């Protein structure tokens, strides 16, 4: 005898739900009360059914997602000296860390003894990503003098992002990047082409803008590196995305899922077998505050949840006090433990694509993907990322969105806990001065500047 759990319930359609919602609203406007008009320019319903999903696109969305369980807990370690930094890396690797980002940006790599720096760390077991401020070729030469096995990890520099903030880009940059990709061909899990969305996110971009401009950046790398002699497969296998994750919980989940879907669409345009994008996510600094700083912990937690539900491969959680002082051992431990708790207590590493099948999230992903794709095509019509940036198209779009965010906070139509509401002005030991705007008189276009929206309320 068969038994259906839901046999005693009659079917219900969306119209019945809307009618009940109108009754419960007691005269309030449905559109103004329940519809979400997103900064990305589309409208989100409060309730969706399976009839509203486009089956063909849904299949593509789900097929593009991560195909392995879990993510890497990947904090940042800043270089001090060979021995001190080695000790710091070994220590955190014993505390639930799976991978590391090593910040070498303020160091001349020729002064480092890498055998001492990496003593006890095997890059075939522990992925290590290096920030070198353009010293990538020197780094690879140094590593290959003593590492004879396949390395995991990669390079965390994005030359195009640096150009958009400083106006400086070496004429030989892409040729050097191609040479690095060739030099590490024997290590397929060592990514050498980093496409960073942080430069857009931290300047104030919304999710669609961040996706569109990151895709345009990735396509620029593909164009330039194939021109430099690499075949498309070699480029796409070495490329990965590093993405900031903000406070808009559901939109950020959709953003990572849409990124993977759109990246597969781009690859198919090149006529190659699509590879699933490797995505490193990090919690946002754009939304961090120096006032009521403990609220940064709340933001970091929800941002981290969005990242892992969205399917990131690696996650960096910033310390809650990094905005106004050098993080201490406690704040760094709390940051690492957010990722651990999401695994060990929330079990978010036990399911592939946990957002799949949610009618709301699937529709949101579809809408965001199409909005981002439309903007990406606008950039391409203007000649690609470099040309669009030189025309100030990208900067103007981001500036308009950032202005709207700040205005909404000032008017109280948008709430940021601990900044424009529920605020306690705690005394902080050191407050960093605002980052001075970079000016390069040699370029005729505007540059992007990282900011924090809370700064407006901290004066």
Explain briefly what this protein structure is.
The chain has 17 helices and twelve strands.
What does this entry look like structurally?
The chain is of the alpha/beta class. It contains 17 helices and 12 strands. α12 runs parallel beside α13 and α13 packs parallel to α14. The model has no long low-confidence stretch (mean pLDDT 92). This is Methylmalonyl-CoA mutase family protein. It comes from Runella salmonicolor.
Identify the notable features of this structure and list them briefly.
459 residues, alpha/beta, 5-stranded parallel beta sheet, 12 strands, 44% helix, globular, Cbl-dep_enz_cat, MeMalonylCoA_mutase_a/b_cat, Methylmalonyl-CoA mutase family protein
Structural class: alpha/beta
Q: In percent, how much strand structure appears in the residues?
A: 5-15%
Which value, in Å, is the CA radius of gyration?
Answer: 23 Å
Major sheet: arrangement of strands: 3-12-11-10-9
Number of helices: 17
Using DSSP, what is the number of strands? Answer: 12
Helix content: 40-55%
pLDDT averaged over residues = 92
- Span between termini: 71 Å
């Amino acid at each position: 005898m068969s038994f259906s759990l839901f046999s005693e319930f009659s079917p219900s359609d969306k119209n019945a739900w809307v009618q009940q919602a109108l009754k419960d609203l007691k005269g309030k406007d449905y559109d103004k009360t329940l519809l979400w008009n997103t900064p990305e320019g589309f409208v989100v319903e409060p309730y969706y059914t399976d009839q509203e999903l486009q089956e063909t696109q849904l299949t593509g969305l789900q097929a593009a997602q991560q195909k392995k369980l879990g993510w890497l807990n990947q904090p940042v370690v800043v270089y001090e000296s060979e021995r001190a930094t080695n000790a710091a890396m070994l220590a955190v690797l014993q505390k639930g860390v799976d991978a590391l980002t090593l910040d070498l940006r303020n160091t001349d790599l020729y002064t480092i003894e890498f055998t001492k720096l990496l003593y006890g760390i095997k890059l075939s077991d522990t992925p290590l990503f290096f920030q070198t401020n353009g010293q990538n070729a020197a780094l690879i030469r140094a590593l290959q003098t003593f590492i004879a096995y396949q390395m995991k990890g990669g390079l965390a520099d994005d030359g195009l992002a640096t150009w958009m903030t400083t106006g400086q880009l070496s004429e030989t940059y892409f040729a050097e990047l191609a040479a690095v990709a060739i030099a590490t061909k024997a290590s397929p899990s060592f990514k050498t082409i980093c496409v960073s969305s942080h430069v857009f996110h931290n300047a104030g971009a919304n999710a669609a803008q961040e996706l569109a401009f990151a895709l345009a950046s990735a396509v620029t790398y593909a164009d330039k590196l194939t021109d430099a002699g690499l075949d498309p497969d070699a480029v796409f296998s070495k490329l990965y995305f590093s993405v900031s994750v903000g406070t808009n919980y559901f939109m950020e989940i959709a953003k990572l899922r849409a990124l993977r879907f759109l990246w597969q669409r781009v690859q198919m345009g090149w006529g190659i077998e699509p590879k699933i994008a490797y995505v490193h996510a990090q919690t946002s600094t754009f939304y961090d505050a120096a006032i009521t700083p403990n609220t940064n912990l709340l933001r970091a937690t929800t941002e981290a949840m969005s990242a892992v539900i969205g399917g990131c491969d690696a996650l960096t959680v910033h310390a809650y006090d990094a905005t106004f002082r050098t993080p201490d051992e406690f704040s760094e431990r709390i940051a690492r433990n957010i990722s651990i708790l999401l695994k060990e207590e929330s079990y978010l590493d036990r399911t592939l694509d946990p957002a799949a099948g949610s009618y709301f999230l699937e529709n949101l992903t579809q809408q965001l993907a199409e909005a981002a794709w439309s903007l990406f095509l606008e950039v391409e019509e203007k000649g690609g990322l470099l040309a669009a940036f030189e025309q100030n198209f990208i900067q103007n779009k981001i500036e308009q969105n950032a202005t709207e965010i700040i205005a909404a906070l000032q008017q109280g139509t948008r709430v940021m806990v601990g900044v424009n509401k529920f605020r306690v002005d705690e005394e902080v030991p050191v407050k960093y001065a605002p980052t001075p705007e970079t000016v390069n008189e040699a370029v005729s276009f505007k540059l992007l500047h990282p900011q924090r929206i809370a700064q407006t309320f901290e004066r």
